[in-house]
Every structure is written in C-alpha cells, then in structure tokens.
C-alpha cells in the first residue's frame, strides 16, 4: 500500500501505460511548468547535492522503503531490483525494464507462478556475485514484520504459504521456513527464482520494482541495523551515513555492462539532512549552491517567488502528485448512505483547495478514488467531482439538505448522531489539516451536521487501521503502488486489502463488489481489467465509502548547475539518477 | 573540600535517579503505546504485541525501569535469534526509529553541541562583559547609549531571526562567510573548517546572550563601584584600572559565574533553533526529532543528560564561587 505519508513526502505514483492514458495525463498536467533542461548533453563528474528537510530518510534498507521518492532515490543510485521503471520522461517512463533479471518476469499457471532469471555479472559492493539465494533471502526478511517494518505487504498476501504464518529468517520457525521454501524456489544453477502465489496476480512483476524483492547477503544482514548500511548493488555505495549527511561514492564493483538503466553521472552524491526549509529555499533563490536540488518541495510561502520569476523557468516543475486524498467513512459507524452523501455535498471543496494554493499549486477536485496519473485506469466517475450532476465546488447545500431530510426518516438513529451527538473525524496532527477544521465545520453546519475532530498526535495509521480505535471518518490519501488500479481498489475497498479504512464488509453492495474485484484481479487482458476498475470506482463512489476531496500537486526546484531534471511519473518524483552537474 | 565535592556528587546521583524515575513515570502516563510506535505504517495488533515482547514493554514498569537503569552499567541485549543485538554499557537504550544505540547517537551529537556552547560562551562573555564594563566605566556617554541599543536589539531578536538574517545576508546573498553544509569537523582535524562551520551559530547565540550579560555587568559594576571598599581603595591611591580589575570585577563576576554556568548548561541541553537553522546535528536537533517522532528512548536519554549537565554545572559554579569570592567557603 502506498498510503499518503503524514509528512510532505511523495508516495509512489501511478502512471499512464498507453497512448490514451498519456493523453489524459498530459491534459491534466497542462498546468505544469518547467521540463528537462537538457539543452547541453549530460556530463560525468562533480558532486550532486540533495537538500533534505527531515533529519534522515525513513529507511535505507530496501525491504523497508515504501515512498516513491525514497524508492526512486535508492533505486537510481545504489539498490537494484529485479525489474525497474525506465527512467525517461513522460508516459514511457512507466514501462518496466529488466534490471537484475534478464527479463521482466515470466508468468505461468494463470499468473500464479512467476519466474525471474538473474543476469550474469551482477555483484554486491564487496564483489560477491548476486545469486538467487540472495534474492530469496531478501524476500524472506520482509516476513519478519516486527523487525523489517514499513515495506509493502503484498508478498505476505500473495505468496502461497498455505495456512502457515512465516515469521521470517530471524526466528526459529521450522514450519514457516519450510512453507516459504516451497513458495519461493531457486533453480539448480542458483540463477532463476520462482514465486508461487496463492492466486493469480497478473501484474506481480511490478512488485519487482520494490526493494522487497532485492538481494541481501544473509551473512551481512544485521536485522534492524541493516537499515543504516545496506549493501550496494548499483553504481554507488554508501560511504557515509551520519546525522548530517548520506554520502554516496562510486561502487567499483558495479559493471555498466550488467546495467542498461543507470547512467551514473556525478562522482559523488550527497544528501544533506535536517536543513531548515526556509534556508533551503533561500539557497536556490540566491543561487548559492549551483549543484543542489531541493529533495522536498519549496515552502508554500516561497512558491510564488519560484514560479513567477523567469530566472527559474528551466529549474522548476509544478506537477500533479500521485495521491488521491479523501476522508474514509467507517461504514460500521456510518451506515446511512444519505448522511454520507450529505457530508459530501455540503462540503466546501473550493475553500479547502483555495487554502492549499488553488488549482495552480493545490491540485484539483477529486472525481473518484483513482488518481488521474494512473492513466489507463482513470476516468472521472461522474458520480462525484467535476462532471457529476450535482457537484458544486462551494457545496451543494440544497442537495445536501434534501439528503439530510431523507435521512431523518430513513435512518433516524444515524440522523440523530450526525446532528446532535456529532460525527467524530480522525486526523493526524498537522498544521495544514488543523487549519481546515473551521472551514469544514462551518460548511457541514449549513445542513445541521455536527462534527468533532480527534487529532491523533502519533501513530496515526496504526490507530485508524485498528477497528477498535477508528472513529466515524478518517482522513487519508492513497497513491497506487504501480500502474494498475489493482493496487488501489482492492487495497481500499476490500476486507483483504491492506488499507481498508471503510470497514465496508456489512454494506449491502459489498458482496457483489468483492466478487467483481476478484474477477478483475484475475483478468490478464489489461484493457478489460481497466474497464473493470473504472466501473468499481464508480460503484465505490455511489456507495460513498469514501468522501473524495482532491488530487494534489507538488513542486520541485533545482540549482542552475544541475541538468537532466524531469518528473519520473511512475515514482512520482524526479528521476534522481538522470541528474548531472553541468 | 574533597568531602564537599564527594557529598555533592552523591546528591547529584540521587537527583539524577529521581529525575530518571520522574521521566520514566511521565512516559508511562503518556497516551501512546511505545510498542505501536516501533512498527510504523504497517502496524497490526499482532505485530504490536510481538514488538511489545521483543522490546520488553510487556514487563512491569518497575522492571522496565530497572532494565534501563542497569543497562547504564552493564549494557542491554535486544531481540532474539539471528536478529539479536546489544548496546554495550553505558547503554541508554536503543532507538528503533534510528536503528542505533542511544549512547552512540549522543556520542555523535554531544561534540557538536559542546563546540557550539563553548564557542558561544567565550564569545558572549568577552562581548557581554567587555561591553558592560565599558558602559559602566563611561556611564551616560555615547558608548553607554550604544550598549543600551545593543542590549535592546539583542534581547528583542529571537535567535531564529538573528540566525536566518545572518545566514541570508552574510552567506547566501553576499558570500562573506562561505556556505557550509559539510557537517561537523573536529577542531583538531580541520581548525579552519571548524571555525567557519561554527562562526555564524556562535554569533547568533552570543548576540542574544551577550546583550543580557552586558546589562548585568553594567549594573553590577556601577553598583559595586559605589561600595565603601571601592572608594577606600581609590582613596588609598590605587589606580582606577587596578581597582576595577582587582576589586570591582572580582565582586561583579561572582553572580555572573552562576548565570553563565546555568546558561551554559542550558545550551548543552541543546540550542534547538540555532542547531536547526545552521544544520548542526547536535543534541537540540536530536531532541526535537525525538520528540516529533515520539522516540521515547532518545527523549529519556537527552532529558537525563540535560539534567546531569545542569547538576554538574551547578557544582562547578559553586566551586568557582569559592575561588572568585574568598568570603565563600565550601565544606
């Protein structure tokens, strides 16, 4: 799952995989400013500096990385995966290419079995050859969920372990290990790895872009502490990882002949941690560091300075981010459809978007749960947002009031709760979110809806994902893990999904919905599958399992000495590995 | 004297023990589940339960506290099987947010904060006391007026404003002091880089503190100059410079020593804003991150460290008092 982080990070983006999808994306991105500054050719050498606000990255251990930005960074420089996204601009960047493997995976048995053969000549930074056993061991680590935390959980859902609960390689777990050894096998020559799944997963190979399927040498695994110094397999290796900086230098054991994707231009890549955001912006506004890139976006207060000054016209990008933001209704506590719809129609979406910087910086109104960046699987549902019959950005109070009046008789207990007792909304502690409380409260009060907020200071997702602790609505966001809504619809709206905040199992429409999801998951005809996701998105909106709010935007700034910058659509961030020093 | 020091050290140990108990108790009442905080976004009840056992949060509070306390002397072991690891003594716990023993984190951060605090202290004592003496010596003169303006500005501007202004105008816009994001270097390894790295942070902190010290010094010197023994010394024919140095300043510096000791101790606890603006990976920034991340072992350790520094600085100040003021005897 790629839930929206609580900080201003970028998760993995969904992208377009067809011409049609590309058209949708380019249409949406028409407000984007700035593109690649590739007038002069790329150069080798120099030091690329990435300026980062947070005191460190969430993780360096490939098995634990889940945000697109960090994944893109690591994958660009020092961690190779079985397959990877092609680091090129536009929709073509969504294409899978073989990385450590010789191809992008071979499915069989109705996509229940997937094989990847490792290419020769690939090594770890210590010179050890990468083998199937290393990849298998890397995969096994993600099952030690108490130690190897935060990575995507698809392997736990999909590997065919029978009914055994495997606890990973660190615990003494004979039965679990035996089941795992059956689910993931290596060929006799230790070059081909086979994954046996418990169901058909037509796009399993996309999971191969994640570090959860990457090689780790068992003898060098340090459990938790591997996060501080993972072994490199890419063109760079970690030379220094301190509280101040992460420094990457060239990995002499990496062979260009074994890697058709990466173009390691700078000699050294340094990420500076913990910088004040205002200082970071001033560095670029004053052109103090030519070879630097803002790893985060600029501060809201400085966006105008960057985007209204022609000086930055070749050094900025303003683009849609991969997240679809929403409030998830807890259907167990909010079973009345009319009240859920009334909340949607009474909300003042325009005021919220204006607060976020309007359409230029803030994004656009949601038209469903699937982000437009997903391209092929996206289409406006016409149930919510622009294009739908009753959508009014400032709130359709008449429609909302009519729904409330209907709820008064159709679900009186829920009506009383919504108007007298109050609906409780979970949000994480965030200045931005808290600033929007008065706007929403006032909007809902127009139809008599009473809300209170439960501000969760820490452990937001672990709290709201606990059915016992989740309140009536929970603020959230979601970005697809790869270019398929199979990582959106099932994750958000089925009980087996990793991010079902709706608790919609008792909804009258759930059974049919789930059956349709199962069919879509098995469908290998991508066009047909795409139609199914679109239809399911419509269904989810009709049932108002979530209250969709907006699709966001993000901005990037870099120094005048940096070339090659472009937005890497599938990762929802810059293609870090293509940057060079002019 | 030795008995006095030993007694004070014993008291200090008791105080630190009480502080550690208090901090530990406070954490028990916080509405957070420390086990839930260790497994990030994918936390599920079964994982939280497993982590609770792995990290010892399933044990009674007194036992957890005892493990923490004993870890300082004998180190601590965590985890089981091939993922087991240990933090050697003196162990202040393990940060699962940063995947490191807290003692190691403090070892990295302390030299930065120490360098910041010592440099700033020297600077603000020189400027603050020097300007205060001048202002008192030339009372009601333009120098005095100038010092008053300095004091007003220094006490009015918060350090994050001073720091940002210095950084923007001296470094980013005019490149008078080169921008340095290279990180901490020891004074023994690269003296010039060390001074460049710390110059602006020192000035930022010293600007605020020296304003206060200017005012204190001025007041103390003027007040003591009116004392009978000062007049006597002057009447005996001692030169004013000698009187100032040997009698006035000696008396004026005693209370300033207390103040400086406590301010210094406060800075060692972490100058959060200054460290953040100038990207100094010191204790202040570490504490701030720990609080934001609810990294309880780090918060506990930094709180204890800050308390220990305050206690020790108090002891040092008391001993210095005896040196500066012969009327004060310890024992």
Q: What is the rounded Rg of chain B?
A: 24 Å
Task: Specify the CATH class of the domain at 108-288 in chain B.
Answer: Mainly Alpha
Mean pLDDT across the residues of chain A is 88
Give the overall average pLDDT of chain B.
86
Silhouette of chain A: globular
In which order are the strands of the major sheet of chain A placed?
13-17-12-16-14-15
Annotated CATH homologous superfamily of the domain at 108-288 in chain B: MetI-like
What oligomeric state do the depicted chains represent? heterodimer
**Which structural class matches the secondary elements of chain A?**
alpha+beta
Percent range for β-strand residues of chain A:
15-25%
CATH architecture type of the domain at 108-288 in chain B? Orthogonal Bundle
N-end to C-end Cα span of chain A: 38 Å
Largest interface, counted with CB-CB under 8 A?
A-B, 53 and 50 residues
SS field, number of helical segments of chain A: 19
**Beta-sheet strand percentage of chain B?**
under 5%
Looking at the structure, what is the overall shape of chain B? globular
State the helicity of chain B in percent bands. over 70%
Number of strands of chain B: 4
Record the SSE blueprint.
The complex is a heterodimer of chains A (582) and B (331).
Chain A: H1 19-28, E1 47-51, H2 68-77, E2 83-85, E3 96-98, E4 106-108, E5 113-117, H3 132-141, H4 154-158, H5 174-183, E6 184-186, E7 192-196, H6 204-207, E8 236-241, E9 245-250, E10 268-272, H7 277-285, E11 292-294, H8 300-307, E12 316-329, H9 337-346, H10 349-355, H11 358-361, E13 364-365, H12 397-410, H13 412-421, E14 423-428, H14 431-435, H15 437-445, E15 451-456, H16 460-464, E16 473-478, H17 489-493, H18 510-522, H19 526-542, E17 546-557, E18 562-563, E19 567-568, E20 573-574, E21 580-581
Parallel strand pairs in A: 1-10, 1-11, 14-15, 14-16
Antiparallel strand pairs in A: 2-3, 4-5, 5-7, 6-7, 8-9, 9-10, 12-16, 12-17, 13-17, 18-21, 19-20
Chain B: H1 2-29, H2 45-54, H3 61-74, E1 76-78, E2 85-87, E3 94-95, E4 100-101, H4 102-137, H5 142-156, H6 159-173, H7 191-225, H8 228-235, H9 240-268, H10 272-277, H11 283-293, H12 296-324
Antiparallel strand pairs in B: 1-2, 3-4
């Amino acid at each position: 799952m790629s839930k929206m982080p609580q900080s201003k990070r970028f998760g993995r983006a969904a992208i377009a995989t067809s011409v049609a999808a590309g058209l949708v994306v380019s249409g949406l991105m028409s407000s984007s400013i700035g593109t690649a500054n590739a007038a002069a050719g790329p150069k080798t050498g120099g030091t690329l500096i990435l300026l980062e606000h947070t005191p460190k990255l969430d993780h360096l251990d490939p098995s634990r990385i889940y945000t697109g930005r960090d994944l893109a960074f690591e994958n660009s420089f020092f961690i190779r995966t079985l397959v990877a996204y092609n680091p090129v601009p536009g929709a073509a960047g969504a294409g899978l290419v073989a990385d450590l493997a010789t191809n992008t995976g071979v499915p069989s048995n109705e996509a229940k079995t997937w094989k990847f053969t490792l290419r020769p000549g690939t090594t770890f930074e210590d010179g050890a050859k990468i083998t199937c056993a290393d990849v298998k061991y890397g995969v096994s680590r993600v099952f030690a969920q108490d130690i190897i935390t935060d990575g995507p959980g698809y392997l736990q859902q999909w590997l065919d372990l029978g009914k055994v609960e495997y606890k990973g390689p660190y615990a003494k777990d004979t039965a679990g290990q035996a089941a795992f050894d059956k689910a993931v096998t290596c060929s006799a020559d230790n070059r081909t790895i086979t994954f046996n799944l418990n169901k058909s997963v037509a796009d399993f190979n996309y999971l191969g872009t994640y570090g959860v399927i990457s090689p780790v040498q068992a003898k060098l695994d340090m459990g938790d502490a591997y996060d501080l110094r993972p072994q490199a397999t890419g063109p760079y290796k970690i030379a220094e990882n301190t509280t101040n900086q992460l420094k990457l230098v060239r990995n002499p054991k990496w062979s260009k002949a074994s890697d058709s994707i990466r173009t390691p231009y700078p000699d050294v890549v340094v990420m500076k941690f913990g910088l004040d955001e205002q200082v970071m912006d001033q560095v670029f506004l004053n052109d103090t560091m030519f070879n630097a890139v803002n790893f985060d976006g600029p501060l809201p207060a400085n966006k105008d300075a960057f985007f209204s000054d022609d000086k930055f016209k070749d050094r900025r990008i303003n683009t849609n981010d991969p997240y679809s933001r929403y409030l998830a209704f807890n259907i167990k506590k909010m079973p009345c459809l009319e009240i859920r719809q009334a909340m949607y129609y009474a909300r003042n979406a325009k005021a919220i978007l204006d607060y976020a910087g309007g359409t230029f910086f803030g994004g656009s109104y949601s038209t469903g749960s699937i982000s437009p960046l997903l391209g092929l699987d996206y289409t406006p549902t016409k149930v919510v947002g622009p294009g739908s019959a009753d959508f009014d950005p400032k709130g359709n109070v008449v429609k909302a009031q009519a729904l409330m009046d209907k709820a008064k008789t159709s679900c009186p207990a829920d009506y009383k709760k919504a108007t007298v007792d109050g609906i409780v909304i979970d949000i994480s502690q965030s200045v931005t979110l808290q600033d929007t409380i008065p706007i929403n409260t006032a909007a809902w009060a127009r139809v008599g809806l009473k809300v209170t907020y439960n501000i969760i200071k820490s452990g937001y997702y672990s709290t709201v994902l606990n059915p016992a602790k989740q309140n009536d609505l929970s603020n959230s966001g979601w970005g697809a893990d790869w270019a398929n809504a199979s990582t959106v619809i099932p994750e958000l709206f089925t009980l087996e999904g990793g991010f079902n905040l709706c608790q919609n199992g008792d909804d009258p429409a759930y059974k049919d919905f789930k059956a349709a999801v199962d069919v879509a998951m098995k469908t290998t005809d991508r066009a047909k599958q795409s139609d199914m996701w679109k239809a399911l998105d419509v269904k989810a909106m009709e049932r108002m399992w979530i209250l969709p709010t907006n699709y966001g935007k993000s901005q990037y700034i870099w120094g005048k000495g940096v070339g090659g910058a472009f937005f890497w659509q599938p990762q929802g961030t810059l293609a870090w590995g293509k940057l060079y020093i002019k | 004297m030795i008995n006095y020091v030993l007694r004070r050290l014993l008291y200090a140990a008791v105080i630190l023990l009480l502080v550690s108990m208090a901090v530990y108790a406070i954490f028990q009442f916080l509405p957070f589940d420390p086990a839930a905080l260790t497994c990030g976004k994918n936390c599920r009840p079964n994982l939280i339960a497993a982590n609770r056992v792995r990290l010892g949060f399933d044990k009674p509070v007194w036992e957890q506290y005892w493990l923490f306390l004993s870890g300082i002397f004998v180190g601590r072991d965590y985890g089981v099987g091939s993922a087991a690891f240990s933090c050697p003594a003196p162990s202040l716990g393990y940060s699962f947010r940063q995947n490191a023993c807290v003692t190691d984190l403090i070892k990295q951060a302390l030299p930065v904060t120490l360098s910041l605090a010592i440099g700033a202290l020297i600077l603000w004592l020189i400027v603050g006391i020097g300007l205060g003496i001048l202002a008192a010596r030339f009372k009601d003169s333009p120098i005095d007026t100038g010092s008053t303006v300095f004091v007003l500005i220094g006490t009015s501007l918060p350090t994050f404003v001073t720091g940002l202004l210095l950084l923007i105008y001296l470094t980013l816009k005019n490149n008078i002091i080169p921008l340095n994001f290279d990180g901490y270097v020891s004074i023994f390894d690269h003296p010039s880089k060390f001074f460049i790295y710390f110059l602006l942070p020192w000035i930022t902190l010293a600007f605020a503190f020296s304003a206060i010290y200017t005012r204190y010094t001025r007041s103390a010197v003027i007040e003591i100059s009116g004392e009978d023994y000062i007049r006597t010394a002057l009447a005996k024919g001692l030169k004013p410079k000698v009187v100032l140095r040997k009698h006035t300043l000696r008396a004026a510096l005693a209370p300033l020593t207390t103040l400086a000791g406590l301010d210094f101790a406060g800075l060692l606890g972490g100058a959060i804003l200054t460290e953040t603006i100038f990207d100094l990976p010191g204790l202040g920034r570490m504490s701030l991150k720990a609080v934001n991340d609810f990294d309880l072992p780090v918060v506990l350790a930094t709180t204890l460290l800050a308390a220990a520094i305050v206690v020790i600085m108090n002891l040092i100040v008391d001993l210095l008092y005896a040196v500066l003021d012969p009327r004060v005897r310890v024992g």
